[in-house]
Amino acid sequence: MPELPEVETSRRGIEPYCLGKKITGVTVRESRLRWPVDKAISQKVTSQTISQVARRGKYLLLKAESWIIMIHLGMSGSLRIVSQDEVAGKHDHVDIQLCSGKCLRFNDPRRFGSILLTKVNEEHSLLAKLGVEPLSKEFNLDYLWQICQKRSAPIKSVIMNGQVVVGVGNIYAQESLFRVGITPSRAANKISKKRLASLVDEIKLVLTEAIEAGGSSLKDFTKADGKPGYFQHTFKVYGKAGEQCPVCSTPLKHTVIAQRATVYCAKCQK
Q1: CB-based contact 103:97 (threshold 8 Å)
Q2: What angle do CA 104, 106, 107 make, to 5 degrees?
Q3: Catalytic residue chosen out of the listed positions 3, 6, 175, 202
């Protein structure tokens, strides 16, 4: 499933082609996504110019004069910039045509993604309850410390909670916790302020490294230009249960936290 670095990679990939471009139409081949695509989407956004290509959590936001197109990649979605005359594939569900002759093509084999409309200056209900952005100044030690003091849940569950901080998915939660030596199952309110400070710094670093590497290309994700990311080659623990810890050579253990597979080193992480 695309996580924050993959979504940010997509944002950066499509921005040069979309920013400042007028929408000339929208073709919907399959409207049955996670939520139905607005039947009037083409009528509403045609002739509007994209003034900003933003991201909030895992949502990509194409902001125009009156409307914002909200795109979520779901489990298997991806975006490509293609020529408008390029023949659509089986899972190419929506095209947003641009005045340049290019189009932003949304592909989603599992159809768990979404394309929604919201009016400019109105906060969509799906965005209203999102937590702070992990790479923002709002995500800091004081913020996480206050959150953790009130929670006895495993720290991995806390940092993956989208109402606390957005976009720290399963991959990046495991990698960050390994780097700072915190076991994923430790109660959030039992972690010292010093260790939480290190965790905040490491989350920012891991996400930044993943973005710079082009996102973590798993089987369902390719970048806007079709090239995979390479951050997966730096994984220390994710998906490596039973392999040797890269630090101490102890076999990595597997557990399940909040219904998500979790790999950790019982010796390095306390």
Answers
A1: yes
A2: 140
A3: 3
Residue from 56, 58, 156, 223 carrying the catalytic annotation:
58
Closest by CA to 78, choosing from 89, 64, 63, 87, is 89
Paired strand residues for 260:
257
Establish whether 134 is a catalytic residue.
Answer: no
d(CA 81, CA 194): 45
Q: Is 11 a catalytic residue?
A: no
Active-site residue, selected from the candidate residues 111, 195, 260, 267: 260
* Distance between CA atoms of residues 72 and 160, nearest Å: 18
pLDDT tens digits, one per residue of 172-207: 999 999 999 999 999 999 999 999 999 999 999 999
Angle at 75 between CA 223 and CA 176, to 5 degrees: 75
Annotation says 2 is catalytic: yes
Distance CA 143, CA 79 (A): 34
Identify whether 179 is a catalytic site residue.
Answer: no
Contact, 224 vs 79, CB < 8 A?
yes
Cα–Cα distances (Å) from 269 to 168, 178, 191, 214, 250, in that order, read: 19, 6, 12, 28, 11
pLDDT tens by residue, 27-56 = 999 999 999 999 999 999 999 999 999 999
